[in-house]
Write a structure and sequence with these properties.
Blueprint lengths: L1 H10 L8 H27 L1 H8 L3 H10 L4 H11 L5 H15 L2 H4 L3 H15 L2 H10 L8 H29 L1 H22 L28 H5 L2 H22 L1 H7 L5 H31 L4 H22 L6 H13 L4 H10 L7 H12 L2 H15 L3 H26 L2 H7 L17
């Protein structure tokens, strides 16, 4: 018996200790990281009208500049996802933020289309892994049953980025010229990178067993690694990618064209457009912070991961799609703006949930790579939607007609993605098929608060 106890003690190491204070410090840093990320990403859209006027560029050219952000975005997310198994999250996030600062500089020296493209390509390459790798870094500090709220807060950094950035960046652009916004964002990114280098060490939960995996020595153990073919072709991961693709399509339109649409089609002032964008971001933030409560309530009622975390993704994208298809035809100002807010803000809950569903069917050691692949595939709309919208605007009989065509096309893409996610995401079923959980007892999905 003593011998068996010794073997058990060797084969079953103690669980990591949850350091609440340090974990929430890391969470705060990562929320700030995401806030800066989305401010950097949105500055071009907020400055679109003065930049287009000063440089005399067409809608298609501007769409090409905006779309160039995504040229290396997905590829870098994919590559860094695999690198994350060998390089610490401290180094990865520091490098990304430092490159964000550098990416804002070319246009300050030469205000031209090539300089804008160079800056956006570098920024896209540095921001491609940001969401997935910051989530991966966050998961290293929180056990599986405490990740819901931190995940929602991490994604809420995007909404906060627009909520804070839209009025501040617009104030900088109107008061000091559009170049001033690029300068301020460069300095902010550099400061964050230095702070992160000091505090952003990796946490103890990088190699914990997958949720529901066997841990006793007399029971079968979940595999530490699985072929990526099996991980990427199961319904839950494919459904998570579909949900992210649909939500990212709306997000790409929001960053590239929403400010210009509000000013040129609805006749808003720069301040009015910024206020509405902030209001849409506030809606996204409310939805994001409601996710933990929703997930916990459903789980306490015995709801499966399919319905607690999968179905909300599909429904959110589908509802946003229907709003996208409807608001161009609304005559009433209030109804138009409400539908516009749902179209561009209602998909927000997809981003924390699609990581949670994907993580439920992936061994922890491969989580960073799969997160990178999911993010790379899901964010491809950033490469397509801005340019396609600009082309439709230039080729249509009028800008109003071009916007209507672009929004109807976007609605069709988003609705298809939402329905696919609704049908495909089934974490318990896929985890059992992959051997990550007991065949007789489905694994509980990670709860949302802790």
């Amino acid at each position: 018996m003593v011998e068996n106890a010794t073997v058990d003690s060797v084969e079953s190491p103690p669980s990591p200790t949850f350091d609440r204070r340090r974990a929430w410090l890391i969470a705060a840093m990562i929320v700030t990281f995401m806030l800066i990320n989305y401010a950097d990403k949105s500055v071009l859209g907020l400055a679109a009208v003065p930049i287009m006027d000063e440089l005399g560029i067409s809608n298609s050219t501007y769409g090409m500049i905006s779309g160039s952000f995504s040229l290396l975005f997905s590829l870098s997310g994919l590559v860094v996802g695999f690198v994350s198994a060998r390089v610490s999250s401290r180094v990865l996030l520091f490098t990304m933020a430092a490159l964000w600062a550098v990416a804002q500089l070319p246009v300050l020296f030469v205000a031209s289309v090539p300089a804008l493209v160079a800056g956006r390509v570098l920024l896209g390459a540095a921001e491609g892994p940001a969401a997935s790798m910051s989530m991966h870094a966050l998961y290293k500090w929180f056990p599986a049953d405490r990740r819901g709220l931190p995940s929602a807060l991490q994604i809420s950094g995007a909404a906060l980025g627009m909520l804070v950035a839209a009025p501040v960046v617009t104030w900088l652009i109107t008061g000091f010229g559009w170049r001033s916004a690029f300068v301020v964002l460069a300095v902010t990114s550099a400061v964050w990178s230095l702070l992160w280098w000091r505090v952003g060490h990796d946490g103890p939960y990088g190699q914990e067993p997958a949720p529901g995996a066997h841990t006793s020595t007399d029971a079968p153990r979940a595999p530490k690694r699985l072929p990526y073919r099996l991980l990427l072709l199961n319904g839950t991961v494919l459904g998570s990618i579909a949900a992210a693709f649909g939500a990212s399509w709306a997000l790409a339109l929001s960053h590239a064209w929403l400010p210009a649409y509000l000013r040129t089609q609805l006749g808003m002032t720069p301040g009015g457009a910024a206020t509405l964008i902030s209001a849409i971001s506030a809606l996204s933030l409310v939805l994001l912070l409601s996710v933990p409560v929703l997930v916990d309530t459903l789980r306490r009622r015995g709801c499966s991961g399919r319905w607690s975390t999968g179905a909300p993704q599909g429904v959110a994208v589908a509802v946003a799609a229907l709003a996208m298809a409807s608001f161009p035809f609304m005559d009433g100002r209030v109804s138009h703006l409400v539908l516009l807010a749902v179209a561009f803000g209602g998909h927000a809950i997809v981003f924390p949930l699609h990581y949670m569903t994907a993580s439920a069917v992936v061994p922890p050691v491969q989580r960073g790579a799969v997160f990178g692949i999911v993010a790379a595939a899901g964010t491809l709309p950033g490469l397509i939607a801005p340019y396609l919208t600009g082309h439709l605007l230039d080729s249509a009989a009028s800008q109003s007609t071009g916007y209507t065509q672009a929004y109807l096309l976007s609605a069709a893409v988003m609705l298809t993605c939402g329905l696919l996610a609704l049908a495909a995401i089934r974490p318990e079923r896929d985890a059992r098929r992959l051997g990550l959980t007991d065949e007789k007892k489905p694994a509980p999905a990670p709860t949302a608060t802790g």
